[in-house]
Amino acid sequence: MNLSPNIWTWVGAFLTLAIFSFLYKDNPFYKMAEHIFVGVANGYAVTFYWHNILMPVLFNPLFRGRLVLIIPLIIGALYFTRFIPKISWLVRIPIGITIGYYTGVAIPAGIEGSIIKQIQGTILTPHNFERWHAGPWGVVWSVILLVGVLCVLSYFYFSKEHKGILKVTSRIGIVFIMIGFGAAFGYTVMGRISLLIGRLQFLLGDWLGIIR
Questions:
Q1: Could you read off the pLDDT of 170-187 as tens digits, one per residue?
Q2: Domain residue limits, the chain
Q3: Cβ–Cβ under 8 Å, residues 139 and 131
């Protein structure tokens, strides 16, 4: 289908307004746009996985003689047993393998990428206090980071009742936790606002030509 870009602009504007119509109330236009989005997303995903994963990684090597790939092919095909009531229990096999594999991959990656990096970022060395390297504010933020991490850890230390100094540090830890949650929430809101601004720029610029 060879349609002019102007037609696709009108299609995009109509679907955008249909999604925005949910701000008033649930309506058929919103449901139509929602179903189109889900259908297109799933169609794109199926096409992407077929041409970029299944064909080059599984079927093409299998047809060239790598018969060992029959094993993952059979395991993957077990997903479809979900639609056959008598043998639907077989779907547990590929689900279990997938969860076990990705858990095994995610745990070392999470430890290496998050926990160890956090520990390395928290450790204070003389290098942090070299004024000509970090500057005065670098020294201040290094100390704040160390204090924040220790206070947050003390808040989650439940082997001793929070009294005395432990009570003070745990209360300070709550402040740091709330700051972290607030920053994460603010980052999420900023992301959603950026999407809204992009849609408004499309409507007012590409579609109506009000802004450039």
A1: 999 999 999 999 999 999
A2: 124-212
A3: yes
Contact present, 147 and 168 (Cβ < 8 Å): no
Retrieve residue 160's tokens: 């001793």
Q: By C-alpha distance, which of 197, 155, 207, 202 is closest to 176?
A: 155
- 3-class SS shares of the chain: helix, strand, coil, % to 5: 85, 0, 15
Treating both helix axes as pointing N-terminal to C-terminal, what angle do 165-201 and 131-155 enclose, rounded to 10 degrees?
A: 110
What distance in Å separates the CA atoms of residue 98 and residue 79, rounded to the nearest whole number? Answer: 11
Q: What is the dihedral of CA 27, 31, 37, 41, to 10 degrees?
A: 150
Res. 35: pLDDT tops 80: yes
pLDDT of 32 over the 60 cut: yes
Q: Confirm whether pTM is higher than 0.85.
A: no
Burial 148-184 (b: 16+ CB within 10 A, else e): bbebbebbeeeeeeeeeeeeebbebbeebeeeeeeee
Instruction: Report yes or no: 151 and 143 within 8 Å, Cβ to Cβ.
Output: no
Nearest to 18, CA basis, from 7, 9, 31: 31
Sign of CA dihedral 106, 112, 114, 119: positive
How far is 9 from 209, CA to CA, in rounded Å? Answer: 11
pLDDT tens-digit series, residues 148-167: 989 999 999 999 899 999 99
